[in-house]
């Protein structure tokens, strides 16, 4: 959540391309990054911090200001889904979503996809480790991107998750995905989360079914 997204593709094989949204020099990106910073800072700040009452008031003031400038949810959703392909609001890669890491997923020339990130305190499960549900979220989404990269995508019907070893916070992680096969409407996709040393912490096998939910208009 807190390491700035690396959009350079450094560490990716030559010819890799970003498939998910990349940061823009836009006020909404800066505001969302600041909100991520606030989430982490609230978890880290001294519980005895004498100014927390004022912090609560100021944050509520900011929320009220944003709410006053919000269109109807339906209109906002039409706007969100107005683009093509890449989204900026999902909970994994969305640059406009403060709960997204945000992860940038690259398409590799060998047909697989990969994202690199360091997960920190807001996503803690066991002490010093990534929450298992967060690992499943990262992998579900990455497999979805792998399907897009392979040219045939759908909705998750099953995600079988195997937790091999605790996934460390504060260390660079690699999130991998690859479409394995397509059989009629059924798409099988695999992925894993590895440490920088290549140790597999979590692996998944996903079954996706080629079906779309219509975009709001
Ligand atoms: C880039 C963006 C990436 C985003 C990635 C995010 C991915 C997500 O989070 S998607 C959201 C989570 N998933 C959902 O909400 C899906 C909810 N479920 C559904 O909509 C449907 O049940 C769905 C799509 C899984 C199946 O659709 P439906 O049209 O009913 O399929 P149906 O005709 O019954 O089955 C098609 C085939 O799949 C099989 N199948 C369907 N569901 C399952 C299942 N859960 N397990 C095993 N097989 C299944 C059927 O047996 C059938 O097989 P066959 O052709 O051999 O007879």
From TrEMBL:
GO terms for molecular function: hydrolase activity. InterPro entries: HotDog_dom_sf, RHA1_ro05818_N, THEM4/THEM5_acyl-CoA_thioest, Thioestr_dom. Residues 19-75 form the RHA1-ro05818 N-terminal helical domain. It catalyses: (5Z,8Z,11Z,14Z)-eicosatetraenoyl-CoA + H2O = (5Z,8Z,11Z,14Z)-eicosatetraenoate + CoA + H(+); tetradecanoyl-CoA + H2O = tetradecanoate + CoA + H(+); hexadecanoyl-CoA + H2O = hexadecanoate + CoA + H(+); (9Z)-octadecenoyl-CoA + H2O = (9Z)-octadecenoate + CoA + H(+). Residues 1-24 are annotated as: Disordered. Pfam families: 4HBT, RHA1_ro05818_N. Its EC number is 3.1.2.2. Its main location: membrane. One of its GO terms (biological process) is fatty acid metabolic process. Residues 128-201 form the Thioesterase domain. The keyword Glycoprotein does not apply. It is found in: Cell projection, Ruffle membrane; Cytoplasm; Membrane. GO terms for cellular component: cytoplasm; membrane. Keywords: Apoptosis, Cell membrane, Cell projection, Cytoplasm, Fatty acid metabolism, Hydrolase, Lipid metabolism, Membrane, Transit peptide. The keyword Cell membrane applies. It is a peripheral membrane protein. It is an enzyme of class 3 (hydrolase). Belongs to the THEM4/THEM5 thioesterase family. This is Acyl-coenzyme A thioesterase THEM4. It comes from Speluncibacter jeojiensis. The lineage of its organism: Bacteria, Bacillati, Actinomycetota, Actinomycetes, Mycobacteriales.
